[in-house]
Amino acid sequence: MGAEERATLEAWAEEAGGGLGLRSRIVLACADGLSRKEIAARLAVSSATVAKWRARFVERGLDGLADAPRPGRPRSTERQEAERVIAAAHGSAAPSLLPSTRSMARQLGLSQSTVARIWQEQQVAPPASQVLPRELLSDRVYALLRGWIVSGELVAGQRLVEAEIARRVGTSQAPAREAIKRLAHEGLVISYPNRGSYVAEISDEQAREVRDIRVLLEEYAARGAAVRIRPETLQQLAGDVLAMRRAAGDGDIGAFRDADLAFHRRVCAACGNSFLLRLWRTIESNLWSLHVVGNPLYEGDWMAMAGHHDDLVAALSSGDPDEAARLFAAHARGEASRTRPRSRRGTDPPGRSPVP
């Protein structure tokens, strides 16, 4: 390798995107005396790929690193597809909105395999502004993955590939691996030795067990809160409902989840049993995730689900512990309230009119 060739390869390795940059790095590593195995491990390619491009360079020099003509669609068409995929990926406003290969394929009218290939070849990752702070990597990747599962972005039975997850959120594979382990511990992911990890399919029995636990806790909390709740807490609960409506309107299921958890946490705090609040804080994320994933209701209208919480606020405002317990238990079972209880205290929660 001459000095001029090396300078060109170094420029390509630094500036060229996609395949040409990778091929240049392969050839430079070969020139530096690294073995095929070492190069493959360092650049995350196969040994066969290393051998192929080394041989092409030896035979044809720099020209050998260009894509060879092949039958099928013109390269310009493939280039246009790649440009569309890259633009779609980098057009996301936040990491939680970065689409999967599945959703992007639907959006662009391409096959999922085409999108996945372009992601790999072009090393698609979030823009620099979306890269996560190092100290938050593990927790943030975990939260993103759980959000994608709960929102249906990752569907039951879909395989979770650490390399693809890392590319989506702009991290190494270690945080993705740790996040998958945590989700497996929660029951949202199933990992098989030598087969990979997959989004869990929640059985009817598991969904029933989750609902039963929620019914017990929510019914108890509502009964106590109905006779103790303060007007300022009712105002805060109404604010949580408003936040749910905004999140539903924006299609931000993560924000919806946060507002929903805050709502039920306030009810637990208002019931007068400090141990229940500590218990709820410990298990709330797992209960919410499993409840949503295993509950067909949550495949429907998120705005309507936000509206159900208006009925819960009204029930607490009524001061009737039996009515509040009934509505909260129905909510925990996934049943929409069909009644709007009258307020016994003479005031209704903000944004609601008294029922005749």
From TrEMBL:
Keywords carried by this UniProt record: DNA-binding, Transcription, Transcription regulation
Region feature Disordered, mapped onto this chain: 330-356
Domain of life: Bacteria
Ranges that cross the membrane: none
One of the Pfam families matching this protein, by short name: FCD
PANTHER family: GNTR FAMILY REGULATORY PROTEIN, TRANSCRIPTIONAL REGULATOR, GNTR FAMILY
Protein name, as recorded: FCD domain-containing protein
